[in-house]
Amino acid sequence: MADCTSLTLGYIVSIVAGGIIVFPVWWGMWRFADGKGENPLKAPHLLAIIQGAVERGLYTSCIVLGRPDGIAVWLAFKAIMRVKVPAEDPRNVAGTEIFLVGTAISLAFGVLGGMIAMKIWSLK
């Protein structure tokens, strides 16, 4: 059973530590992909940070609530929305890999945060 301390630590690891890792990786991949990091398919920085934090919090909440199927629903929603980017757009190729890597790292931190919150895994 989770207590207030483990819940807080789990969400901090998920949202804050995850953001510290995910955002520089995301930004670096865009800079590598287009040379400047100024791609119209890339979300504005603040929006990307907020979306990532919300996603990691959602993943953590799904683990805490014992409903990991919620993660699958969210990932399906994200995939459907990603398909709406025109396939003929040449920027779509780099964007897809960056999308997948960012999602994978966020998912890992979200699940790790949920495991810490539920005392399934400890930082000790």
Structural class: mainly alpha
- Our count of domains comes out at 1
Query: How far apart are the termini?
Result: 17 Å
User: What coarse outline follows from CA principal-axis ratios?
Assistant: globular
Q: How would you sum up the major sheet?
A: none
Percent strand: under 5%
Number of strands: 0
Query: What is the C-alpha radius of gyration, as a whole number of Å?
Result: 16 Å
Number of separate helices: 4
What does this structure look like?
The protein is mostly helical and 124 residues long. It has one domain. Helices cover 74% and strands 0% of the residues. The longest helix is centred in the first third of the chain and has 31 residues, at 4-34. It is globular. The model has no long low-confidence stretch (mean pLDDT 83).
Notable characteristics:
74% helix; 4 helices; 124 residues; globular; mainly alpha
List strands and helices in order, with pairings:
Blueprint: H1 4-34, H2 45-64, H3 69-83, H4 92-117
Task: Give the gist of this structure.
Helices cover 74% and strands 0% of the residues.
